What does this fold into?
Amino acid sequence: MLGHASLDELTLRFGKDLFARLEGDRPTVFTPRWLDDRMMEWSMDDESIKIQLFRLIDVLPAILNSTTSITRHLKEYLELAQHRLPLPMRWGLRWLPEKGLLADWVARAARFNATRLARRFIAGSNVQEALSAIAAMRKHNQTFTIDLLGEAVLTEVEALHYQAQYLELVEGLTRTVNAWPDNDACERDHLGLMPKVNISVKLSSLFSQFDPIDPHGTARAVKDRLRPILQLIRQHQAFVNIDMEQFSYKDVTLQIFEDIFMEEEFRDWPHVGIAIQAYLRSCGDDLARLLAWARKRGTPIWVRLVKGAYWDYETTIAAQNGWVPPVFLHKWESDVNYEQQTRFLIENYTWLRPAIGSHNIRSIAHAMALAEEYRLPPRCLEFQLLYGMADPIKTALVKMGQRVRVYTPYGQLLPGMAYLVRRLLENTANQSFLRASFIEHISEDELLMNPAHHATSTSHASADSPNGHVGKDHAGHETASRSKPLPAFANEPLADFSQESNRKRMQAALDQVKAQLGLAYPLLIQGEEIATPAWIESINPSHKNQLIGKAAQARVADAERAIQAAVEAFPAWRDTPVVDRANCLKRAAQIMRERRFELSAWMVYECAKPWREADADVCEAIDFCEYYAHEMIRLSHHHRDVPGEENEYFYEPRGVCSVIAPWNFPLAIPCGMVVASLVAGNPTILKPAEQSPVIAAHLVRILHQAGVPKSVVQFLPGIGEEVGPTLVKHPEVAIIVFTGSRHVGLLINQQASATPQGQNFVKKVITEMGGKNAIIVDDDADLDEAVHGVVASAFGYQGQKCSACSRAIVLEHNYETFKTRLIEMTRSLQIGPAEDPTYAVGPVIDEEARQRILGYIEKGKQECHLALAGDASAWAHEGFYVAPHVFTEVSPQATIAQEEIFGPVLAVIKAKDLSEALAIANGTPYALTGGLFSRSPANIARVRREFRVGNLYINRKITGALVDRQPFGGFKLSGIGSKAGGPDYLLQFLTPRVITENTMRHGFAPSTSGEPS
Ligand SMILES: Cc1cc2nc3c(=O)[nH]c(=O)nc-3n(C[C@H](O)[C@H](O)[C@H](O)COP(=O)(O)OP(=O)(O)OC[C@H]3O[C@@H](n4cnc5c(N)ncnc54)[C@H](O)[C@@H]3O)c2cc1C
It folds into this structure.
């Protein structure tokens, strides 16, 4: 058949044949489907309408039972896009009532249309409905793979439920379908009849703590849940395919796949497959790995080759984290890779049996052509398409004698929303083949062109289009990042622990640091190491018998000596050029970068920071160095000259600075406070917290190594009550920077306000004093996101962050569901030592903190309902563990709803409406962080105005502020001063001065450009 035709010619021939068979088989007007298509077209024409429309669709399932809520959301969303709407719609919107007959009618229509749209891509809400859809397909000689919708599994209860549903599905489906008569067109390949039932499974749904940072623990748990499903599938002669999800899950998914199908009972089972994504740069390596593994296994597997469904997600996450995107950035690259990997599969088809999962006629035709070129047996290739998409292509393929399998999801709309949104995005994406062919009617020749030809194309527009043809760019991501100038400051990218290389580096650092535990860290005054009679022992909170190190315990005389040394060092440091000071910070950043895993390891041991939190701490420290270096240079010059007059506005440092630091961000916070002071020109003394002197000693040594003179930054560990007053009250201390408790912060402020004899300036005090942070959960919130966000904010680092959430204020409508899921998700968190990434929750910092938190728990039991007391008893003797506790029906005035606890204790408060929620949220003496989960544009706007906190987060967790992106700090009793990591912070360490010089002499003056005028 191939004859002398080249592969491209043959591809073209198959492609043309397919196109010819589509003729006349396109969506027709006046069917509900046609209406959907018009809606899609409409949203494709205008990005802002698309966003509002998809957001509306996203919220509808959560509010389906409330007419008022539906009409309110309709108005709110469409009003945002109203200038783009047709005039009659704008009028309609204006007069649409929220209640009454008309509102009922509109709500019913919205409900009907949303459900119908979903039903276009989702085959039914239960097995029966899915079965009817499958039976209908079978009449058209198309077979199926079935998928049970549901992805965001937050709790073990949900994961177990999902497993149970799968078991039921297998039983129910095979009972019916296996009894159906054989259909050769559907099931017969070159080797004989294939299983009639084919099931697709997403592994992340089987385990609520699915996390690639702990691949072994994740794999163990998932395999335990998967095994019974596989046994049943095999027992019923069915087929199983493992779906592929986001990139961070890929390696662990492959590992689980390989492990489990190598097990004795499954090793000789040929009816298994996995989806592999060609938009990933790693795709070729993954297929090579699978081939080697399949050979070793001795039984072939199937590979469903897809391009991938998470492109927007992957590129967004990469941009947010500063990571290299794992996906190709040009559409044609994904297409070229798809063709290369199709060839690889076809070359190795006896081991990796190819299933071509695409709606792209060029990709499909290319696979057919290759099958010809390699003379594959007829019907050896399988073509897979999605339910509700490209139906004419399915029909055409069947007519051409190909085997066609339709990926058929079923389930409830709410858990199906993520799937539905992916389909809507896919159908409306600028670069979608379907859009190009069915909507934009690009010519067949263009659509069938070899994508590799775009590798040499110089036109960006054409290179970024479906098969490279439509001159529109994609979603703004890549083009936007190209056209924007590079920012002067970029956050240090967090380590991606889904990558094995990073996990290995972290483990190696933990081993290396472990060998250095127990050393002594003397004071560093004027560069001299000073031992003291008493020492502070720094203990590992995870293992209280493990000594991390001993730090000297400064006495008042030591503090005075350090202050005197700083006074002497001041003039030279003040007069050091700003650039040189800034360069010291940049060098310090570089040293930290090189030692990032080691520094993280110190924090894991010294403060029980989990891996990700420790890594984020190092990154923040690096960011502070880079950012303040950059900021000081920005501030250093300001001229406003006129002819004959030079005006210079500039800053000078204030003088000696005492930094009194906390332990909860043991590197980042001290580093930020110290380097801000240093770069501004102030000699600085660091008194670290008693619980974290070792990591602070490393910080000071790094600063010395980076070139900061030894008298300019000094290390003074000690007991707060002993040396604190000297560091605050000494008449030579000009600035006090403090982060810690409200009590101490206010005391410092009071002490610093005195102006003793001989002190000829007013001290500057900068304090950060905590919060009682709340998250409001609106009645239309996405509960998957809200529960996840509240749990992460409340229990991340055991609730020991100033930004942590300690109050969840939930609107009545969602209260019960939210509460149940929150409790179950919290119960699902695993508790244990911080060095082991299996555990999401570690110990609190020390015994004193543990006792204080337990005291609050006792108080909570008296005042409110204890809904969950986590269990940390397994580790009770090992360290300072307090398991997460959740209190419900909490009164806004209860002690645990008013006082900062700084531990894993969460108060859940019910509010009848948003006004009440806001009153409760604002009803404490603090104003640090706050959050809102809502999908109502009007409520979001109101909360932005009325929730008065320093850092407000909407629809995300409330911890994890990044330097420059989210400068951090509060007001009221949360602190005095400007936000750390923000453009005003350095000003607090500086005094502005102005110098004016008259440059005119007897009527002549230099011009402002320097030339004589
Ligand atoms: C049966 C079946 C099962 C599936 N199972 C999975 C699965 O398990 N996991 C999964 O992730 N997906 C899965 N998919 C979804 C699939 O990934 C998408 O439907 C598919 O990518 C669409 O590709 P296409 O060839 O049909 O369309 P085309 O329009 O030719 O290609 C779209 C692809 O190009 C990518 N793309 C768009 N813009 C760019 C750009 N600028 N740079 C690089 N690439 C770009 C898109 O992300 C998308 O992957 C499955 C699809 C089918 C048919």
